[in-house]
Design goal:
283 residues; alpha+beta; four-stranded antiparallel beta sheet; two-stranded antiparallel ribbon; 6 strands; 49% helix; 14% strand
Length: 283
């Protein structure tokens, strides 16, 4: 898939508009909201303008957005009304390109509406996470003391049958001591490397030999281990839907490419630098 096509597809997808539904007795796309020197401005025009705005502007309060869009259309209508002569070439070309983009976007919306179903979304989710192996997580407790000798003595006490939590409460200098040394669940990168390295190599229920870190000497007990579950579909739905949309559009473009009669040989003698020649847009 070429970068050019990805760019064009992304542009077209952004133009897939959501058509508002109005009740029969409600304002509709043809409802006139203003006139400027006899030229009507409709509610449909305003809705279309809103759909082209950046999302940050679409989130503005409805009254602010309504008045701002209406003022913009009034000003544009006034300015356009003063124009005389033939439509400039640059405008004709821009309108042609816009029509292509909007019509192709409508086709893409039809494809998406037809093929991006709940079943397709579920299938894509299942395929992505079929062999999912979550990040390992560990539940450990520790006893922190200043010296290796103290740590070795405590290790022996625990292995001889002393209760780990009670020993932590009386001997650990770490902040988790009063809580029996419990650290809860943690994953890779959340503990200093020496501590994490020791835990990774432990069996559940065992107690480590003394481990030195920048904080002192640790006696560690691995209470449990697990791997993170795959994220729920609802948590990644937006990402999955986007993937399915791209795939169905790519598939349709590939199908059309197979059967289309496309001849680009006429472009071979064109200097690419001419793209910057804006004089070509003049009448």
């Amino acid at each position: 898939m070429s970068k050019t096509f990805n760019f064009l597809r992304g542009t077209a997808v952004a133009l897939v508009l959501s058509t508002p539904a109005f009740a029969d007795d409600s304002p509709n796309a043809e409802t006139v909201v203003a006139t400027v020197n006899g030229t009507e401005i409709t509610l449909g025009q305003m809705v279309a303008v809103r759909e082209t705005l950046d999302p940050q502007y679409q989130q503005l309060p409805a009254d602010v957005l309504f008045n701002g869009i209406l003022d913009q259309l009034v000003q544009q209508t006034m300015l356009a009304g003063t124009f005389g002569g033939d439509t400039p070439k640059r405008v004709e070309l821009a309108l042609e390109n816009m029509e292509l983009a909007l019509i192709s976007a409508e086709v893409m919306r039809e494809i998406i509406d037809a093929k991006v179903t709940d079943e397709a979304i579920q299938a894509a989710y299942d395929a992505r996470y079929a062999d999912f192996e979550g990040t390992p997580e560990f539940n450990a407790s520790h006893i922190l003391v200043p010296t290796e000798e103290e740590a070795m003595a405590i290790t022996q006490e625990i292995r001889d049958g002393a209760d780990f939590a009670e020993t932590a409460k009386t001997k650990s200098t770490g902040p988790s001591g009063p809580n029996g040394g419990e650290l809860g669940w943690f994953g890779p990168g959340q503990m200093v490397p020496e501590f994490e390295g020791a835990v990774v190599n432990m069996e559940v229920g065992t107690v480590s030999d003394p481990v030195q870190t920048q904080f002192g000497w640790h006696v560690i007990k691995l209470n449990d281990s697990r791997k993170q579950d795959a994220p729920a579909l609802d948590a990644v739905r937006g990402e999955i839907v986007g993937e399915v949309q791209r795939n169905v559009v790519d598939a349709e473009v590939a199908r059309l490419t197979e059967i289309a009669d496309v001849d680009k040989t006429a472009s071979e003698g064109i200097d690419p630098a001419l793209l910057t020649n804006t004089d070509l847009l003049e009448n």
